[in-house]
Amino acid sequence: MSQSIAHATLYAPVLVHGVSTNVWTPWALTRRISPRAEVRVMVREADGLLHMNQYPRLFRLGPVEPTTPWCVRLADDDQLFQLLCFDFDAKGGDDAVERAVDDCDALSTVLDDLAVPHVVCQSSSGGGRHVWVGLAGGAPAGVVAAVAHAAHATYRSLDHGMLLNVREGAARPPGAPHRDGSSSIVLRGSVATLAEPTTTTGDLERLAGVLGERVPAARPEDSRPSGPVDASHRAHRGLSRWGQAHMATVGGGENPSWTGFMCLLAAASAGWDFPDVQRAAQSAPGMEHFRTKNSGRGTRRPRSAGEAAERLARQWAKAQQYSALQRPLPVVREPADLAELQVIVSDVDDLLTRLRVSPGRWGQTEAAVSQRSILTALAYLSLQTGKRVVAASIRDLGLMVGLGRTTAADALRALQTAGYIDQVHSHDGVNATEWSLASEFSTGSRSVRSQPFNNPRPPTELFTLRAALVRRIEDQLTDQLHDLFTRKGLGHLAGRLYALLREHASLTVESAARLLGVTVRHTTVIFSRLRRSRLLVKHAGGWARARRDLRDVAARVLRLAGTLEARMEAYQCEREVWAWWLAEQSTMSSIPRERPRRPHVSSRPLFDAAASGERVWPRYPRGSDGRANHREARYYVNAGVLSPTSRWQLAIA
Questions:
Q1: Where is the composition biased (Basic residues) (predicted)?
Q2: CATH code for 482-561?
Q3: What CA–CA distance (Å, rounded) separates 407 from 369?
């Protein structure tokens, strides 16, 4: 092979015009750093091409290199890791490459701060990144797993599976060819640090500790900026304290793509419109990601106007989805009892495993699919609040997963009957029903012993696992929370399949049918609908997500755009009418002399009474027979007459 790796010599390099002339070939480097006597290689298909991204055959190390791409296993025969490879995937949409590059650079900065030698590679022409670390004397699987979990919870694009597989975890080494014809290119660092490693187990333990401190908070309001904050910057519209901090992060901080998304999430939670976001993107320090792009060489270069506008629009739509999912969360602090949180995290982890290994129970019927989504939403609320009992109305649960209120109510009744959830308290006035996951997901009586058989997780590991579970559920729910996947569109199961393609690079019809728990025929129909909407593309391993997210376009074509937003507005009106009627009942049951003077809903105020205090409701509409007229009440609410911020009132009833 003619390719070579610069700055890779084990000995003192001979420099000619600043470039080392002593170089390793990819195969020579592989022979030097491989922990085992064999590498895994790809196998050509009958047509002579490499279709599957698999390495099924062993190839013994020797002077002759393989004719197909290869990968080295990270651990030796004694189950000790000799190499670490952090794989940042560039899959999952137009922004995936930049997210992978930003995450890679952030991890590289942490390694530099800890003086851990490492090598940064561009894994292939797709733009993914590999960060390699050589270990002196090896490291046990438990230490590496702690690093892997902390890194996975911190960086969304990291695929940490190989770091958890001590037997067969493997990756293509620096310089090794890729099946698409490209190869792994060294961007930073010297591969000599892989051949003569100095990183110890103690270094990995310190790395796990630092990454554990950087794990993003489960709730946005608890998140911290990833860099220094410009105290002089002020947003042109009101923002929460955490949103203002992210918006003022100088240069987007250590991870501009993450900071930029947090800025959008804060704006969506504060009720901003897209023109407000466009205005902020022009000057807000934290939104640097939408003005410049990572060049991959440690610098940033300006984006074109079209690219910046398109990226901002895509990320804004995603931020609105996450905001809608998090809107029902109450304002609570972290639980003081970590033992209870330990049980909740274990229960949710067990529940997600049960949902994955029993797809037939949760996919055979449309009702079962809805039940799965509602159960996942309840688990998400429990995980986020740190409480076993959570208050959730059927409307909020429906909006979280993209279902109507009647479908959500049916799913709750079915789950309760089947014993998956328990109703702790029924709804009372404007207070929602309280639910909890059933005891069958609990860890059992041993969790309340003074000296439990299984030692609980340390706080850092506990919060790391919690953050990883929150992110997994959020990804699942937001992927299927779209107008296109409502019942009038492609259906809820199509949204579930679309969400699965985030976890899997590609799926065949048969494998997707097994994961969904439905027939191959039904799965073929779903694939056909997704393909017709240009959400899928043909892949060597089956079908994969299209690089561009065209769900909004497909929803507009099918005349479904705005379905979920209209549903949310309708539910808000229903809540307003209900609260108005409860206030009317309270007034009617009070002593006449204690009743407040209430104007008619159609009256015009002479001035704006902005004084704080309990809201005073106008008189409830009534018919000629004196009975409450709920239809007219709904009309006034829909017209916005009851809004405390409304500057006008109707002239006549």
A1: 292-303
A2: 1.10.10.10
A3: 11
Q: Measure CA 448 to chain center.
A: 32
Rounded Cα–Cα distance for residues 176 and 194 (Å): 15
Angle at 517 between CA 511 and CA 523, to 5 degrees: 60
Return phi, psi of residue 421, to 5°: -135, 160
C-beta of residue 371 within 8 angstroms of C-beta of residue 408: no
| Residue 350 CB neighbour total at 10 angstroms | 15
Residue the block writes with tokens 């997994």: 472
Q: Two tokens at 280?
A: 């902020």
CB neighbour list of residue 561: distance below 8 Å, 6 or more residues apart: 483, 552, 555
Q: How far apart are CA 249 and CA 284, in angstroms?
A: 8
pLDDT of residue 214: 85
**Rounded to 5 degrees, what are φ and ψ at 545?**
-65, 145
Supply angle C-alpha 598, 604, 608, rounded to 5: 85
Give the percent of the chain with pLDDT over 90.
35
Residue 379 φ/ψ, nearest 5 degrees: -65, -40
Length of the chain: 653
CA distance 617 to 599: 8
Between the alpha carbon of residue 116 and those of residues 87, 139, 206, the distances in Å are: 17, 15, 10
SS (H, E, C) 151-197: HHHHCCCEECHHHHCCCCCEECCCCCECCCCCECEEEECCCHHHHCC
Distances (CA, A) of 425 to 406, 428, 431, 515, 596: 20, 9, 10, 35, 32
Both tokens of residue 379? 């688990």
Give the list of residues 6+ apart from residue 445 with CB closer than 8 angstroms, or none. Answer: none
* Sheet strands (E) in 507-569: 536-539, 542-545
Confidence at residue 538, expressed as pLDDT on a 0 to 100 scale: 85
Q: Where are the domains of the chain?
A: 28-214, 220-326, 482-561, 563-638
**Average pLDDT value for residue range 388-415:** 91
482-561 shares the fold of 28-214: no
**From CA 370, how far away is CA 361, in angstroms rounded?**
12
Q: Which CATH architecture has domain 28-214?
A: Alpha-Beta Complex (3.90)
Q: At what angle do helices 96-113 and 201-214 cross, to 10 degrees?
A: 130
Q: Please write the tens of the pLDDT for every residue from 93-151.
A: 667 788 888 899 899 999 999 999 999 998 888 788 999 999 998 999 999 999 999 99
**CA atoms of 455 and 443, how far apart (whole Å):** 12
CA dihedral 250, 251, 255, 258 (to 10 degrees): 80
DSSP class of residue 132 equals: E
For 503-554, how does the pLDDT look when each residue is reduced to its tens digit (9 = 90+)? 887 889 999 999 998 999 999 999 999 999 999 988 777 888 888 888 999 9
pLDDT tens sequence across 141-155: 999 999 999 999 888
